[in-house]
Amino acid sequence: MSEVITSPMVGKILDVKVKAGDQVSEGDEVAILEAMKMEMPIVAPCDGTVKEIKVSAGDSVESDSEIAVID
Question: What residue segments make up the domains of the chain, in order of their start?
C-alpha cells in the first residue's frame, strides 16, 4: 500500500533530497520545507521505494499538500 507524505504546514520547498525510484528508510529526509523562517526536514514515515515526487525546489505548499508517494 502506498504512503503519501504531506506538508505539516504552509511553507516553501527548499530542496528535494530524493527522486522517483530511490529506496528510503523510515526517518530519511525526503525534502526540506521552509516555514516561519525555519528549515524543517520532511522525513519518510516508512521504508520503501519513492514512487512519485509531487513538488520541486521553490514550490510553495499549503498544509497537507502532497509532497511524495512511497510504496
Answer: 3-70
